[in-house]
Design brief:
Helices cover 14% and strands 48% of the residues. The chain has eight helices and 20 strands. A hairpin with a 5-residue loop joins β3 and β4. α5 crosses α6. The longest helix has 14 residues. It is elongated.
């Protein structure tokens, strides 16, 4: 026990700076996450105890504590639904909370469609998998409080306060795409009870849906009353630029695989080492004292054809009311052209770098089926919106009890830019699981940030029963 405690403290010290993390916080470290863990580290599924694993459907998105209304509408499909529909997107987007505080906005949604893998060879030393998912991002940088408050709190609620000031370098971007991938994982080294080494890779094809952005390089503002309850936002000396790769279009299955709206490739690479074992351990559960993994994910980009439009210019005066804010949320392309005009028109062909990250985690098994995990996920793309899409920086410590039929995790997460850590949880019973990265945001409006990553899913699997039978006979 002393050795395991020392190892844990060592890794906590190494990773205790503010790091970065992403989806499925808590479940991402589970030995029973199957193909869903391969998006975090493709090597993790090598040597699996499953003969096969199938994700039927899973969803991950940022939400706020207005979650009852959130699940009652189809707001779950924001933000990637923006590319295909213009009905009531403003109201739905108000229910999706940002994960970060301050001048940055980070809203994500991810729908994982049927995916799975099959284990081959002795001890499933080779695993072949297939992944498919739709991903959407709404991100903002340099967001001034007047813009954030005008959108979130409305200009016609009777609570708006008059103010004046200026801002610069405000960028807002919505990006959505579909990806399909092939995963190959192998276990080239296995010395029972001592060490297991795993490697893996995922090759992904990307199909772009749309990238639309607005950049207000500089502007002066005044929030003033129009009548007793309604205010307007006056902007002056507005230096702007906006562009889009594709206007709103009808959704069809062909859109998911078409290269007409943008295409690209990406790569995930990973390695995992498992050390030691616990004596008299359950044969159908993970048996190691320490697991260390490292991976780089989303190394790639989407290239859009030069069929979009880009405009820029300067406006002496621009008056924004609540109706225009709603219109921008419902159909950003159409109403950006209406509000800002079409001066200095250029063709818009763009490359968007994916949110490339380095994922590192250390997993220590203190007792049978009880683990403590430290995870560090660091974004490595350093450009700005809309050319680069990135994820917030997170570091997570997770206590986890896992078994084949039930699992519970308690992740504590530090998000770069937030004042306090967030506390979440996840549970799994049989084939279904659900989790939150910031449960406090759901039960209290005073908790900041208001947003939490929420996810749920349904999966099927079959244990490698032949291998288990052989072990029992020994």
């Amino acid at each position: 026990m002393k050795l395991r405690t020392l190892i844990t403290l060592l890794f906590i010290e190494v990773f205790s700076q503010r790091g970065f993390a992403q989806e499925f916080i808590g479940q991402h470290s589970s030995n029973y996450a199957g193909i869903n863990r391969a998006t975090f580290n493709p090597s993790s599924i090598a040597g699996t105890r499953y003969r096969y694993h199938l994700n039927l459907v899973s969803f991950n998105a940022t939400i706020t504590n207005r979650y009852f209304k959130y699940f009652r509408t189809d707001a779950l499909f924001h933000p990637f639904r923006n590319a295909y529909a213009e009905k009531d997107m403003y109201g739905k987007s108000k229910l999706t909370g940002t994960q970060t505080q301050g001048e940055n906005i980070n809203v994500t949604a991810e729908l994982r469609t049927p995916s799975g893998y099959l284990g081959l060879g002795k001890n499933n030393w080779l695993v072949v998998g297939f992944q498919s998912r739709m991903r959407g991002f709404v991100q903002g940088s340099g967001v001034p409080p007047v813009i954030f408050d005008s959108y979130k709190n409305r200009l016609d609620d009777g609570l708006t306060k008059a103010s004046t000031g200026s801002f610069k370098d405000f960028t807002f971007n919505q990006h959505s795409f579909f990806e399909t991938g092939l995963t190959f994982a192998a276990m080239p080294i296995r010395i029972e009870g001592l060490i297991r080494v795993k490697v893996g890779a995922t090759i992904k094809r990307l199909s772009g849906a749309r990238n639309v952005y607005l950049n207000l390089k500089s502007a002066n503002y005044q929030v003033r009353p129009l009548n007793q309850e309604e205010y307007v936002l006056d902007l002056s000396n507005v230096n702007y630029e906006y562009g889009y790769t594709q206007p709103v279009k009808a959704f069809g299955l062909g859109s998911l695989f078409s290269a007409d709206y943008g295409s690209g490739t990406a790569l995930d690479l990973g390695a995992t080492v498992e050390l030691g074992r616990i004596r008299k351990h359950s044969q159908d559960r993970a048996n190691y004292i320490l697991r260390v993994g490292a991976a780089i994910t989303d190394a790639g980009k989407i290239t859009y054809p030069s069929t979009g439009k880009q405009y820029s210019g300067t406006l002496n005066e621009l008056i924004i009311n609540q109706e225009q804010i709603i219109d921008l949320g419902n159909n950003s392309v159409k109403n950006l052209e209406t509000i800002f005009g079409k001066s200095d028109s250029r063709d818009y062909g763009y490359e968007t770098q994916l949110p490339r990250t380095i994922n590192i985690d250390a997993d220590v098994q203190f007792a049978k089926s009880f683990f403590v995990n430290a995870t560090w996920i660091k974004p490595t793309n350093t450009g700005s919106l809309p050319t680069y899409v990135s994820q917030p920086e997170l570091f997570s410590l997770t206590a986890r009890f896992e078994g084949e039929d039930a699992e519970f995790t308690l992740p504590v997460t530090w998000i770069h830019g937030n004042q306090n850590p967030t506390i979440g949880f996840s549970v799994r019973f049989g084939p279904a699981y659900i989790g939150f990265s910031n449960f406090g945001a759901l039960v209290s409006r005073s908790v900041q940030p208001r947003g939490t990553l929420a996810y749920f899913g349904i999966q099927l699997w079959k244990l490698n029963e032949k291998a288990l039978t052989k072990r029992r006979k020994r």
